[in-house]
Amino acid sequence: MASRSSIIIILLLLYLHSTCSQNVSVGTSLTAASNSNPWRSYPNRDFALGFKQLQPNTDLFLLAIWFDKIPDKTTVWYERNSYPVPRGSMLRLDATNGLILQDPRGRLLYNTSGGGPADQVEHASFNDTGNFVIRSRDSSILWESFRHPADTILPTQSIEMGDTLVSRRSEANFSIGRFYASISNDGRFVFNTKTVPSNSDYDDIYYGGGTSPPNASEAVIRVTFSSGALISVVKRNGQDQILSPPLIPQVSDNYYRATLDFDGVFTQYYYPKSFGSNPGWQAARSWPQNICRNINGFTGSGACGYNSVCRLTNQRPVCECPQGFSLADPSNPYGNCEPQFVQGCIDGEPQGNDYNMEIINDVDWPGDDYERINPCTEGQCRIACQEDCFCDVSIYRDNSCWKKKLPLSNGRVDTSQGLKAFIKIRKRDIPTLRNRRPTRRDQQTLIVVISVLLGSSAFINCLFITAACFLLFFVYNRKLPAPNPVQDPSASNIRCFTFKELVQATDGFKDELGRGSFGIVYKGSIPIGSQTMAAVKKLDRMFQDSDKEFKTEVKVIGQTHHKNLVSLIGFCEEGPHRLLVYEYMSNGTLADFLFGDMRLTWSQRTQIALGIAKGLTYLHEECSSQIIHCDIKPHNILLDAYYNARISDFGLAKLLTMNQSKTLTNIRGTKGYVAPEWFRNTQISVKVDVYSFGVVLLQIISCRKTVEEGLEFGDGENPILTDWAWDCFEGGRLDALVRNEEEALRDMEMVERLVMVGLWCVQEDASLRPSMRKACQMLEGVVQVPKPFNPYSSTTGRE
Fold it and tell me: Which positions in this protein are listed as binding ATP (predicted)?
């Protein structure tokens, strides 16, 4: 009996040692899964290291260290370059390379490079300071998380020369943000902003800029976060300058952290260890005190996005779009604001009557002035901007007026100076270019015409003068009625067909042109103008019970007009039948030429790529009702007789409600072209089309499918197109991507530009992708294309 008790005690001690030991043995591994068990700190298990699921029921994870005992599991360290990590990835402590993170296919996502033959890894330790340390056989430190901070430091941790805290993109987005904290070369602890995605420096230090040391002995050499939770800057002469408030809650009773938050504010937080409810993190102190006013550089957008206004609330910036503007990305309230009206001059003429001047008190955008009027009254300031076609905003203060152009930066609320902003907003009912009143140039032309006529005979003069007067009366007084909202699709230019007509036109739906995401397309004969051929799309049953949505969407599609969109000729909604009639495209789909025997030339393909980009720009930004296509792929790009790209099926995706989606996962689109955000249950924006366009662009370059079935991993050419495109770009092997095509090889500058645009478009982080307008500008060479990030170092969810 005693022997059995001894065995039980020994087994219990061994179990406790294995579960509570502060050491992690070589070969120990973790797998990214919903029920994965992390490594916990020793001895109190305050922290955990492992995979955090980004959202419930998703396949995306973050390799991180977090506070494990509090309800919200706050992250204090994370590996940014591998974010997000796909389900099934493995983290392992390796004898020669330290921590190794591999995806389910075995590809390396991250490693600490913490060892090697000369200093082989012995084990890793993880204590309750939150520091994960990899040690060699002689117990020396090979790597530690405290020396590789993300956006947070903990008590006993310091920021050394060369260390940098980088904010995340948003509260839930762990990509690189705009704000940085570090010790500058001249010995200051400074915060500054950088541009995303290129992350080049802005000369915009918004904290520490006024503390330049008078001599080298007072230069800052480190920033410490003591075990007593005091944050201090340590100077070269040994003196400490304490930044934390003198009275803070007891360290023994609270958890502490200091984080450079996504909004650019560096904050020291505490959290009670003994909590009956969830009190949340409390701020002990924040730096700077007013980030809205502290960021004031000549480059960059400021604390908020361009054209936005920063308002300080509880020492945190809150960003707002002014009247007449809206967020460019609705999912990012701290992002840029776009005007909801057309800007600029018309024929260089003042268009003051076409605009309203909205007044906003106590708001300023300093540093964007192109003209100052002094002295000036408030009324003169308003009129001066209204009548200047280059002016978008004017600021009135102290009998002076400052004129400004878009985009505006460093917007902030400032109640100390009696500011008044006048924002020019275009009226909604202004005349268009086709029916606007004549300009001064038009008047001068008419005067010249009349003068010439007066030199003719009296009789002819009378006739011409009469005609000229009539012309003047007509030009000056005609007011073409604005088109009334179409109450029914049949009231517009598109034609309403009966089902019988379309049965006859298609010979009983005999000649099938192709099958799409929403139905089958048939060839038809319908005399319309000079054309006789048409494409009749017979929609699936999912549209049968959506009369209102069908009519609304047909109206929207019918009002779209762009050379890179397939025109809608008519429709049919008779009983259960829903059909759309499009103009016929004689050269079929882009897929036929990319993946078939016939190959388009390089110049044809580049023009097709630009045409698709322009068509999507129109759908996203220039339509009266924004349209997200949701299924951009070569099979939905048709080619007319001159091989111009024409996007089809646009607008139909809006008819699909989520419960009508064909997939159980509520994901729209086609395998290989689906943006990763579909897998995250997050808000979908136009950036899903940008992602799909990026895939199509890489296909246009390489004439390859998204996944090449005949290839295996390790064969040299990656079977996944986006991965292979990155491999070729990073390895300087773009000639392999264009398969040594002679015309393309003579145009390698264009090849590189298109590849880089494609890689930007397929970035896993939607906020890194350009807008389609920006993509157009990069394709045309109007805007320089920065070097893209590795799109698959943090990509998952692609099919």
Answer: 538
